[in-house]
Amino acid sequence: MEASPLITAVVKTTRAYALAMVANAAPVMVKPIIDRVGRHRVDFGRKAWDGRDVFGKNKSWEGIAAAIIISVLASTIFVYLEKNPWWVTYGFVSAVGTMCGDLLNSFIKRRLSLGPGECFIPCDQLSFLLVAHAFIYLTGVYALVGVELSARVLAFGIVASLFLHLLTNLIAYVVGLKDVPC
After folding, report:
1. pLDDT tens for residues 121-135?
2. Are the C-beta atoms of 160 and 122 separated by less than 8 Å?
3. Is residue 18 part of a domain?
4. Is residue 96 a part of any domain in this protein?
5. What mean pLDDT comes out for the span 52-64?
6. How many CA atoms lie within 13 Å of 10's alpha carbon, on the beta-carbon side?
7. Are 55 and 104 in contact (CB under 8 A)?
8. Is residue 179 part of a domain?
9. Containing domain of residue 106, as a range?
């Protein structure tokens, strides 16, 4: 029996973007540890031409490292399930793309005088996913693991990201990992 088109789309979207979503959540999940051991800002505390932070106080090298490490660790689930070691590379590329998208979003937010953690819908929900998608596509790593990056999969990823990002941020706010609920 063949799976329904909706189930097929959900599975393809999960395969394509789960590791990017894991990478996006990782810095928030390890925030208590980063706060205890100390944070080293990605922008080194420097200001941009407009006198504002380049990225902001919440963007740290530790958060980027956590995103990459946790995404690569999570990729081993796909390695095990699909018997394909290229998933580790896929996890790495997904995480690097995710963090670049997150930094781009922070850069834009600082230019708009939005503070760290302030809501910037839909950019907060989509920047990481779209840049991760671009990295995955441009490196060609999707072909090594058999991931489909069609317009349909991307559209499902966008919808999932909008919903899941808002839901997980609300949960993180409720449990005290975030200062704002979006």
Report:
1. 899 999 999 999 999
2. no
3. yes
4. yes
5. 95
6. 5
7. no
8. no
9. 5-174
